[in-house]
Amino acid sequence: MKNRFLQGLLAKAELGPLILLIVEIAVFASLNSDFISILNISNTLAFTVELGLIALAMTLLMTSGEFDLSVGSVFGFSPVLMWTLANSGATSLVVAFFVAILIAALIGLINGWFVTRLKIPSFLVTLGMLLVVRGLALFMTNGFPQRTWSASGAWLPRILAGEFYIGDFRVYASIFWFLGSAIVLGYVLTRTKIGNWIQASGGNPNAARARGVNVNRTKAGLFVLCSVMSALAGTISSIRTSAANPDSGTGYELEVIAMVVIGGTALTGGRGTIVGTVLGVLILRIMRNGIVFVGVPGLAYNIFIGAIILGMMALHSGLERRHNAGA
Amino acid sequence: MLKKLALFGCVGIALAVPSVSQAKTYYWMSSGSPADPVWTYFLAGAEQWAKDTGNTVKTSFYSGDVPSQQEAERAAIAAKADGIATTSPDPGSLVEIAKEAKAANIPMINFNMRDPTAPFLAYVGGDNVVFGQNWAQYLVDHHLVKAGDFVWMPVEVPGATYGVQEAQGASTVFKPLGIKWEITDATLDQADAISRMSDYLTANHRKINAIMGLGDLVTGSIKRVFDQVGIKPGSIPVIGWGNTLDTTQEVLDGYVVAAQWQDPQATSYVALSLAAMAAGGVRPGFNVITGALYDKTKAGYYAKLLSTK
């Protein structure tokens, strides 16, 4: 009985990332007790969930065998569009928000159309879209950041990124968006027909087509989801930081892909895990936070980040091999 | 006063030149990033100059990419530009190009990032080494730091000329007093910058005696970082760049004790004016040094200046 439980646990793809996360927290906490202070946990979660929202959608897209490099650009572009419309008085903040989400969905649809209809690899399509969207944000604003102070008091910003306290612990509303999205997308991926289509599209698209799965439509839908979640994350971030800069989100695409892969989703498609991605998001963000606490020299920061990512990937790969051998 | 006179004279010349000549084509080339808040003001100055004078100004950004900028500068020379106003991405990187422009009789004015090694006709802008020195001296003179203290210096792009020169200037004041400092990488992405700065401040707030923001984005993020970490405005003195509305407001609210104004719009405007003046046959024999350190009493004035954009 005990053996079966252990075997079941070892067979879980999420076990590796979970062990990594626990080790990471234990090491950082033992080196600096402030690391587990309420203030630091609250601060870390604020930015973590914004990247996490994109990572959740990216998990589904990568499971279907594609990925999206334009998410960072959409993260920057959508809030800029929303605040430009709202600040210029062209429309209300709420309408501007939905316009921005709609445009993001259109960007995703264009990505999906290029990939599925024109058969161009998603790497190239979304790399092109990254430049188009980033250029659009810069051109539209002439480079000037949009003011977001007018958000205070409005209900939409409160729902998206409002803050409240539980004792001394500051909680941002964005964490509920993240948790809600994780639950819904986790359920979709593991318990629904759509989840099967996604995994089949990434694992063996020809076999999936033969069994009646509309692979193209599935992938296009996931590109739309990825763009919409990036737009939502960007909007939340712009409200929290009171800044909508056209170059926000630069480099996020690679960090998000790293989070998803560390979590256990296959880079080649066919297998994905939302729980693993949540762990991957926490692993990377806590690592960035933790190395500041252990006193890594400021300009050596990236050396440590890169080295730790390599080390974690090696450890992850070792655990993965053991898991596959045991399965 | 002298600075104002120089600015007045140059602007006057700039306005006079086009009235007696046909519209000309000038190139305004920046080694900065189009999304860096301060560069938007530099760009606005160049666009304003084009509008006021009726000349064509072709503007471009190279985000620190030296080969691309060199290639574009050579293209402008080949296109027989009437004048070029350019920043220097790295000291020494435009020496040959400035020589080529000189040989082609194209006036080339250096602005914002100075490179005395290249034979530019003139320089318009601040002196980052002097700025860094002034910030450090301000902290010492106002008893905000003392011997043995620690100063945190966040910067958007570690290793970029501006931050290196400012830290170099500050070190001339801090080193003799045994004041230690650390430069950290904040990145040009504001959400990431706030996150990284909050992490650093949470971990090190007990040892930080002052903060020196080596760039506009980091200084303009101080309020958000302090609010995030729960640090009261003024409890850690902050000094640094102040070319954005965010920073002028932070100075007014007490988060930042003093900030550096660089006249970004005027810098571009005057650099192009000097190029036009030289193209008209009057070669400048002087540099125009801009910049002023402002505190709470003068922040409102700069906020008003920036609000016009």
Automatic annotation (TrEMBL), chain A:
The chain crosses the membrane at residues 9-29, 35-57, 92-115, 122-140, 169-189, 220-239, 259-284, 291-315. It is found in: Cell membrane. The keyword Membrane applies. Keywords: Cell membrane, Membrane, Transmembrane, Transmembrane helix. InterPro entries: ABC_transp_permease. It comes from the Bacteria. It is a multi-pass membrane protein. Its main location: membrane. Pfam families: BPD_transp_2. GO terms for cellular component: plasma membrane. GO terms for molecular function: transmembrane transporter activity. This is ABC transporter permease. The lineage of its organism: Bacteria, Pseudomonadati, Pseudomonadota, Alphaproteobacteria, Acetobacterales.
From TrEMBL, chain B:
Gene3D superfamilies: 3.40.50.2300. Residues 35-281 form the Periplasmic binding protein domain. Keywords: Signal. One of its GO terms (molecular function) is carbohydrate binding. It holds the Pfam family Peripla_BP_4. Belongs to the bacterial solute-binding protein 2 family. This is Substrate-binding domain-containing protein. It comes from Acidisoma cellulosilyticum. The lineage of its organism: Bacteria, Pseudomonadati, Pseudomonadota, Alphaproteobacteria, Acetobacterales.
